[in-house]
């Protein structure tokens, strides 16, 4: 059975081309989330608004939750690439900070969509289980980079600590950015948060080579 929102979506879809790309489906879904809420929007609603069959939706995304995260695996590869391209002689936390700030730099036209994405990820309770798993993957990228730079296993305490703390700094910067409603640049908040973190971690990272895996 199609919901009222889905029926309305069918009428809207008649006046627009079918959405047949992940990006187009994301935009349509975000519009629905903004109007009726994430939890009240179904996959059927999104498919109807896009003018596609339900099964077509699942060719692009495994679930409604998956849609919110977009091409997450592709973004992780990009973060790894940014870290790999940092100056090997740069201080550890400077390298991490520059890569994370660049990773979170967006074209001005994309910022409103990214803001909505992060509001969903950070504020919708039903997305928190997904967030835990995704953040573990993001954290692992930082952990592996720190392990490679310090010459200790990724299972050692210091790389793990760095991964957790960099993630926490990034999330805190995002939360502040959302609360400021665009009055403060995201890149500046991320830069500041990781600088503060780096100041506290520098001594620990300098000694990381002496830390053995548990």
CATH architecture of the largest domain: Orthogonal Bundle
Whole-number mean pLDDT? 87
Q: In percent terms, what proportion of residues is strand?
A: under 5%
- Highest CATH level, the class of the largest domain: Mainly Alpha
Instruction: Provide the gyration radius in Å.
Output: 20 Å
Summarize the structure.
Mean pLDDT is about 85; it is low at about 1-15 and about 210-214. The protein has eleven helices and no strands. It is mainly α and about 210 residues long.
Chain-wise SSE layout:
Layout: H1 4-13, H2 22-36, H3 43-50, H4 54-60, H5 64-69, H6 72-84, H7 92-103, H8 111-123, H9 128-150, H10 157-180, H11 186-206
Question: What would you note in describing this structure?
Answer:
The protein has 214 residues and is an all-alpha fold. The protein folds into 2 domains: 4-63, Homeodomain-like (Arc Repressor Mutant, subunit A); 71-208, Orthogonal Bundle (Tetracycline Repressor, domain 2), CATH 1.10.357.10. Helix content is 71%, strand content 0%. It contains 11 helices and no strands. The protein has helices spanning 4-13, 22-36, 43-50, 54-60, 64-69, 72-84, 92-103, 111-123, 128-150, 157-180, 186-206. The model is unreliable at 1-15 and 209-214 (pLDDT under 50).
């Amino acid at each position: 059975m199609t919901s009222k929102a889905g029926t309305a979506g069918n009428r809207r879809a008649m006046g627009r081309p079918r959405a047949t790309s992940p990006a187009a489906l994301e935009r349509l879904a975000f519009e629905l989330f903004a109007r009726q809420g994430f939890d009240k929007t179904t996959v059927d609603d999104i498919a109807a608004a896009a003018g596609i069959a339900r099964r077509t939706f699942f060719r692009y995304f495994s679930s409604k939750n998956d849609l919110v995260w977009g091409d997450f695996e592709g973004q992780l590869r990009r973060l790894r690439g940014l870290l790999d391209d940092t100056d090997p002689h740069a201080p550890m936390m400077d390298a991490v900070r520059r890569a994370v700030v660049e990773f979170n730099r967006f074209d001005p036209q994309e910022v409103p969509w990214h803001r909505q994405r992060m509001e969903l990820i950070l504020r919708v309770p039903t997305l928190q289980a997904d967030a835990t798993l995704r953040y573990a993957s993001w954290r692992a990228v930082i952990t592996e980079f720190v392990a490679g730079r310090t010459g200790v296993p990724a299972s050692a305490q210091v790389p793990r600590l760095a991964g957790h703390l960099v993630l926490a700094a990034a999330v805190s910067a995002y939360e502040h950015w959302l609360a400021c409603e665009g009055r403060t640049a995201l890149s500046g908040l991320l830069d500041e948060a990781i600088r503060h973190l780096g100041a506290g971690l520098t001594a620990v990272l300098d000694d990381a080579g002496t830390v053995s895996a548990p």
